[in-house]
Amino acid sequence: MASNLAYSISSTVRFFRSLPYEYRHIVLEQLTGPASSPILVIQLSFEDDAWLYVATTLPMAIDERNWLSADRLFVLFVALVTVLGVSFWVIRGVTRPLARLARAARQLGDDLEAVPLSERGPREVAASARAFNRMQERIRSQIKERERLFSAISHDLKTPITRLRLRAEMLDDAEQRERFCASLDELDTLVKGALASVRELDLDESWKIIDVRELLVSLAQDLKVQGGKVSVAGEAATLRVKPLSFKRCLANLLENAIFHGDRAAVTIRHGAESLDIVIRDHGPGIPDDQFQRVFAPFVRLEPSRSRNTGGSGLGLSIARHIAHAHGAALNLANHPSGGLVVTLHFPCRTVPCTSLR
Ligand SMILES: Nc1ncnc2c1ncn2[C@@H]1O[C@H](COP(=O)(O)OP(=O)(O)OP(=O)(O)O)[C@@H](O)[C@H]1O
Ligand SMILES: [Mg+2]
């Protein structure tokens, strides 16, 4: 063992001497310096007197006592801030157009005339925005075309109906004449209803802040003239609406409460999250399984009961269309002690409303 060590030392000395003179001080410094990197020396014997020496410095060993030094922390901090900053910038660049797309999709139902989306941004997002804009354009033109067609048909039907009525008046058979006229009256109501529905579904009007209570009180006064009893309770609150359409919606609901349900009691409820306009009447209500059906155009329940109102079955359909265009829900329920309860529910998150209390 001792002889091996002696041999190894003598070999190392020989190796040292064999180094070019100008490198010797580097090796010496490495061997003697206090915080120098360790040196790895590999010596392989080929023959008795022939050795291969390989010497290299190893990476600096981590000083266990000071591995979390201030400058290391600083470098880590700068790297972290840079990575976070760049990631935030990249993610924001991708998610912003996506958020715009989601907002536009939400608003599409309410406002078909909304400005088209910007088609810039990452390739996939730009393609989605382009597809969305094309879809919006197609829906808009189809709705316009449908309304134009509907108005044209309704309008063109009016002239032949009038002509037929004149001819019917000339019939000699009284019974035939009466039946003919009744059928024509029915057709006339349908045509008028169709025209009214096209007109009333046109919500091309600007938004305005109104006082809900004030509007309901003025509607109640108008209906009183027609013999309707309407009471208004609850606090005053403002709401951002399209005034004429919103008035039409409330009027349809109040007329239903009066004509199908005797009298209307309206309550305005303004909570932290929503504004509710609740209309209750004292009529027979609507069977639970018919709640969806009565919203369909031209649907009237028990025609014998509601014939005297002369309606066409469009009131609820129009009211719900207007409610949805305002971001509100229109719900029906039967009161436990009789009568229908109609609730217009405006979530304050989407519909700006404030209490005036
Ligand atoms: N408050 C109510 N109480 C009982 N039934 C109701 C009430 N409101 C609506 N209905 C039923 O729902 C049907 C549809 O109502 P909707 O308002 O759409 O049409 P309408 O009142 O018959 O005619 P109009 O087009 O003039 O409003 C009514 O015919 C009626 O049968
Ligand atoms: Mg009605």
UniProtKB/TrEMBL annotation:
Residues 152-350 form the Histidine kinase domain. Keywords: ATP-binding, Cell inner membrane, Cell membrane, Kinase, Membrane, Nucleotide-binding, Phosphoprotein, Transferase, Transmembrane, Transmembrane helix, Two-component regulatory system. It comes from the Bacteria. Its EC number is 2.7.13.3. The keyword Repressor does not apply. InterPro entries: 2C_sensor_his_kinase, HAMP_dom, HATPase_C_sf, HATPase_dom, His_kinase_dom, HisK_dim/P_dom, HisK_dim/P_sf, Sig_transdc_His_kin-like_C. It catalyses: ATP + protein L-histidine = ADP + protein N-phospho-L-histidine. It holds the Pfam family HisKA. The chain crosses the membrane at residues 73-91. Its main location: membrane. It is an enzyme of class 2 (transferase). Residues 92-144 form the HAMP domain. GO terms for molecular function: ATP binding; phosphorelay sensor kinase activity. It is a multi-pass membrane protein. It is found in: Cell inner membrane. GO terms for cellular component: plasma membrane. This is histidine kinase.
